[in-house]
Predict the 3D structure of the following.
Amino acid sequence: MTQDEMKLAVAQAAVAHIQGKLGKDSIVGVGTGSTANFFIDELAKIKHLFDGAVASSEATAERLKGHGITVYDMNSVDQMEVYVDGADEFDGRMNLVKGGGGALTREKIVAAVAKEFVCIVDASKQVDLLGAFPLPVEVIPMARSQVAREMVKLDCQPVYREGFVTDNGNIILDLHGLEVEQPKELEAHLNNIVGVVTNGLFAQRGADIVLMGTPDGVVEITV
Ligand code: 5RP
């Protein structure tokens, strides 16, 4: 099975997982990235079963609209049945690293509102310890150097993501060389640094269920 075939398989599994939970008024939160794109294309096949979606990025909003799915502003939604999104790393204990595509802040906001967070990954994303994938941190542009100096104190190497601006108009520092022993604590610590908007650790609000594509089929992981 190719990686794309595994992504398609988890996207289909996610649709099967959420289908029975959706009603005419339901709103689906939708993530960002190549796995999320497979999900959007599968979700379009059941668009008659729910009201609309909230997108975690402009790119996702465009793809949803392209399928004729209504996209709501987050501020007009007070209840969301489910949020479905990919991840860059998953540690087997429902903690994630996200933000490879730079959409981490909106992803975290949508995940916070959803009743259930369904994470869809292929097997290459599973790790014992988070941190091999450089941890994205969204930063207010004028705080870039100051935040980078604070990051160096954590024994990691912050790398400015050249030429990239988030949907919120901010920059990304990718933290290389971290070994994330305590994801919840590190998530809170990084978010406390002045100038940080948010970081890509999803531990305080991790996934509720992970659907992982493997060469032998989709594995469902919950804790
Ligand atoms: C975007 C994300 C994505 O979920 C993450 O980068 C995984 O993407 P892909 O499915 O393309 O591997 O967090 O900000």
Summary: Residues 31-35, 85-88, 98-104, 107 surround ribulose-5-phosphate (CB under 6 Å).
